[in-house]
Amino acid sequence: MKISILLPYKENFSPTYAGAVSLNINEILKISKYKKNTTVFGNTKYKNKFKHKYINIPLKKIIFQSQNKKYVEQFVKLEKKRNSDLIELHNRPIYLTYLTNELKNKTYILYFHNDPLTMSGSKTISDRKFLVNNCFKIIFNSSWSKKRFLEGLDVSFESNEKLIVINQSAKKNLIDLKKKEKIITFVGKLNRSKGYDLFGAAIIKILNNYKDWSATVIGDEPRDKLIFNHKNLKKLGFINHNKVIKIYKKTSIAVVCSRWEEPFGRTSLEASANGCAVIISNRGGLPETITDGVTLKKLTVESIYLEIEKLILNKISRNKLQKDSLRKFFLTHEYISGLIDKVRDQKILSGFKINLLNKKIKIINIYNVGQKINHRLFNISIGKKFTNGFIRNNHDVLEISDRDFVKQNRTLNLSNSYKVFQEYLIGSIKNYNPNIIFFGHSDNIDVDTLKEIKNLNNEIIISQWNEDPMMKSLNDSILNINKLLKYNDYVDANFITTDPKVVKERNKSIKNLNFFFIPVDKNIETYNVYNMKPQNDIFYAMSHGVNRATLKRGKFDERVLFLDKLTKKINSIKYDFYGYKNREPVWGNNFYKALTNSKMGLNLSRGNPTKYYTSNRIASLIGNGLLTFIDKKTKLNEIFNNNEVVFYENIEDLSSKIKFYLKNERIRRNIAKNGKKKYFKLFNEKRISDYLIKRSLGKKFQLF
Questions:
Q1: What pLDDT sits at residue 224?
Q2: What is the DSSP letter of 332?
Q3: How far apart are CA 665 and CA 661, in angstroms?
Q4: Considering just the CA atoms, what is the radius of gyration of the chain in Å?
Q5: What confidence score (pLDDT) does residue 546 get?
Q6: What's the CA gap between 374 and 118, in Å, rounded?
Q7: Cα–Cα separations (whole angstroms), residue 561 to 416, 567, 616
Q8: Spatial separation of the C-alpha atoms in residues 74 and 76, rounded to whole Å
């Protein structure tokens, strides 16, 4: 992917006199995986440039014509020859107006380094709507800047995925805090907007009272003559950025006391990265630049003086701030460059995803095959149904069972089967080169392995699924949500069997959350019980303790109480319940033998009935042609009607309906038949598998 970066006009891409924008771009580009494919365009009079591909756009002063417009026109001529895949604009929203007229069908990313409401091209609401409509992404250097951009816009823009915050970065240096000197440093333009008049007055008092301390001022301002002199005050004017960092390494206290609303604040960021105890004003995005420091409650000479004095007098407090600033600093060049490259990756993926829809896809499907338990879970294996669906939709599938792999390698006395599996998985991906990876309940995948997979090929789509309950009423839900969160940073989509809104109420950070329904499979759910003559009335199976029918000590299952009440309510019918009252659970082929010997089935899940949630027993029951009873509070009546499934409101209602359908065999058979027909139409293995793929690729798919 070819990238063109267009600097603001007269932004010096030179270490001789680099501005904040150039410094940011230079450092990020050094680390970017796209650095070899990126060209920077700018206009500078300095011969010395940063060591990147750079094209200077020289312009002669033209009277009565916009220099910015002329500058962009020259860039357009060069860009037409280069034909980049992505154009990144920094801090000049007005450029987009010129560019979209000349370079149509281009992908643009706009970076804001300053207040959007003060910049030509983003001041008005219509300006900002234009930017959103014509940009692939808009990146703000602080939450404050984004908030300013959103002023006056409809509330729907707040959740627009095009608008993202990526802070600026700094190099985290190795600092020996013991070598810090008694130096107080101010960096910035020496004007009132930066609060230099306040700092200057405060620092003179400090230097008079604490004679073993000195101050260093870096910056200039020819238009604002603020002159403060003291024998212990060094004024260095504008100096090279590397020299600034050297001074920060020695500095004990750094002061950034801006009056104006700083969009971010590079000086405080770099001071923090170099282990300074930082004092900042609570303006704009400055609070986002530090993890630990002092925030001025009042912006006065007196308040600045007092906070500096506190740090001078309290060495323990000062040293703690220095230590914490350094230890907790995370806005490194590596971190921020990685975030920006992820945004760039999305440009590739957007085209990649479209292409995938029109081709045979290579899929790796990772789930528990169940070899160690003789495949006894085959009849309820969601992963197997997914595989069957993928194959029947003409895709290529490689199945991997993580649990079986780890188990088998333990028997071979390998010291670390978990680590061996990571190597095996990465090797398989290198050899197979999949387009999409699906995994479910695959706890043996390390997070770093997913990270490595993305580094190997950032075009690979990774999606995880989990059919376990995630409602509020169940303690296990926290564990199940945490399983999603574990891999959340590296997956492109998450699939669950609970209504996503319920999960979002508990944790809003899970991205691209999609509901899916347990599929049926024509080669698994093969029975039509409504045409058979079962001996029992109602079937139900649960798996307490997996291999025994009793609850583990300290555990509670409200389903047991429900079944107790039901069997007492109507004790004249033939119940066939497993995992209940010391009756062993049933698995594999024996599960199907038992299931098909009952006329009706009870779909009862753990926890309070929650919208849409049901376990995979629903596919077994309805899919094999049993009339199925479901609690109305699951809201599944939004999918099935009363001629396909029987909904009940409470035990009394359920008891009454059980009696009714046992007496009315023809009605029972018809409902069971209609339920199976509906289920296979909406949620068969081919359709659900297609849904997983399309939603993973970010495409719309109406499931029901």
A1: 74
A2: B
A3: 6
A4: 33
A5: 43
A6: 68
A7: 44, 10, 22
A8: 5
User: b/e per residue, 461-477, with b = 16+ CB within 10 A?
Assistant: bbbbbbbbbbbeebeeb
DSSP state of 170: B
Task: Give the amino acid at 279.
Answer: I
CB 304 within 8 A of CB 202: yes
Q: Dump the DSSP string for 79-115.
A: HHHH--SEEEEES-THHHHHHHHHSTT--EEEEE-S-
Give pLDDT tens digits for 271-327.
999 999 999 999 998 999 888 899 999 999 999 999 999 999 999 999 999 999 998
Count of CB atoms situated within 10 Å of the CB of 505: 10
Dist CA 141 CA 160 (whole Å): 17
* Residue (of 411, 325, 616, 617) closest to 497 by Cα position: 616
Q: Is 398 helix (H, G, I), strand (E, B) or coil?
A: strand
Alpha carbon distances (Å) from 55 to 80, 102, 606: 14, 20, 64
Reduced to 3 states (helix: H, G, I; strand: E, B; else coil), residue 6 is strand
DSSP H or E segment with residue 317? helix 315-328
- Residue partners of 194: CB distance under 8 A and separation at least 6: 188, 219, 257, 258, 259, 260
Whole-angstrom distance, CA of residue 120 vs CA of residue 122? 6
Name the residue among 321, 346, 362, 306 with its Cα closest to residue 107.
Answer: 346
- Rounded to 10 deg, the angle between the 315-328 and 266-273 helix axes is 100
- Cβ atoms within 10 A of the Cβ of 421, count? 22
Q: Identify the structural domains of the chain with CATH numbers, from first to last.
A: 3-165 (3.40.50.2000), 177-331 (3.40.50.2000), 357-498 (3.40.50.2300), 529-682 (3.40.50.2000)
Name the nearest CA neighbour of 141 among 264, 27, 18, 262.
264
pLDDT at site 629? 97
Instruction: Report the 10 Å Cβ neighbour count for 133.
Output: 9
Closest CA to 611 of 491, 480, 498: 498
User: Coil, strand, or helix at residue 3?
Assistant: strand
Measured CA to CA, the distance from residue 648 to residue 388 in angstroms comes to 34
Query: What local confidence, expressed as pLDDT, does residue 549 receive?
Result: 46
Cβ atoms 629, 602 nearer than 8 A: yes
The H or E element spanning position 164 is strand 163-165
Low pLDDT (below 70) residues in the chain: 62-65, 349-355, 357-358, 411-415, 473, 475, 544-556
pLDDT at 117: 96
Give, for 452, the enclosing helix (H) or strand (E).
helix 447-456
pTM of the complete model: 0.56
Q: Do the beta carbons of residue 106 and residue 83 sit within 8 Å? A: no
Token pair, residue 578, equals 């497993």
**pLDDT given for residue 538 in this prediction:** 96
